[in-house]
Amino acid sequence: MTESPRFPPQRAPGFLWALAAGPDGTAERIDVEHLSEALAERTWVWIHVDLLDQRARGWIQGICRLPTEVTTLIAGQDTGLALEPEGTEIHGIAPDYNVDFLRVSDSVGQFGFMASERLLVTGWRHPLAGIDAVRNALIAGARQSSGFSILAAITAAFARVAIGRLRAAETRLDRVEDQILASSTSDERTSIKEVRRLALALHRPVLAMLLMLREAEEEEEEAEAARLSALPPAGISALEEMASRLGGLDHAIRATSDRAKLLQEEIAAELADQSNRSLRALTVMTALMLPGTLVVGFFGMNTSGMPFEGPPWGTLAALGVGIILTVAFYRIMARAGATLRF
């Protein structure tokens, strides 16, 4: 890592918190004034910053002596997800769930990171669920062995939140499926679209990160075979754990998405069948009006010599003829398979 100017300890733009391994292996909060000593002495240090402060990038570069290209990648989250193992470090941009008003939202955000065996630097522009969960767990007494393992724990926390979202979506799909099997199908296409939207929003970042992790794993395996690998075993283990977590998550996302798609197609087919039945019934009703229309049209001709023209019961006789013809026509159509059921 290159030498960079160090900021005075009283100036820490964007600094949110720092944790470090204590003597007993549990995490301890570190004040910004003691960061330099912690970086030199502790087993691992986790520094987290708010990248909305444009000066945070320079401060990280100074206090941690990181190369400019690394801090540029960490701060440049507009470019999308990234993963770049380099030497004994891993840096990039990873997905995590946003937190809005003290609850986890359905939108997926990002955080920049640089991980090594003794250091983890993370930065966000919006509160994130996975980072908060790991931080709270460490403060509560959870133990981590390195910056790599903390990064893997953040990915695992993100995966747990995502699995919870997918389980809730599966519950909604169960309700829709029960309605279909009970033949009481209502138009649940809006609910299914929401589930598919959730799956799609998760699938894109998870798949992108998973592909980068697998590519990094392959590169490290090739480097290790050539005895050129610089990434320590803890880093390789973290890559494998993150890939395993996201691989399982991607499988669950695909299963939920496929199930939602099948239910959507089933509902569309059921609604189309209902529409066809209604159209058939309306067609039969229209056809049943033809005999009566013909009778009315025939007796409505303004000519002499019409049947039933003289008797006072002529109108009732014509009405009876119309009813008889309609019933006979319906019997013929019923034998052909026509029905009035909607």
From TrEMBL:
GO terms for cellular component: plasma membrane. One of its GO terms (molecular function) is cobalt ion binding. InterPro entries: CorA_cytoplasmic_dom, CorA_TM1_TM2, MgTranspt_CorA/ZnTranspt_ZntB. The keyword Nucleotide-binding does not apply. The chain crosses the membrane at residues 281-301, 313-333. The keyword Hydrolase does not apply. Keywords: Cell inner membrane, Cell membrane, Ion transport, Membrane, Transmembrane, Transmembrane helix, Transport, Zinc. Coiled coil: none annotated. It comes from the Bacteria. This is Mg2+ and Co2+ transporter CorA. It comes from Amaricoccus macauensis.
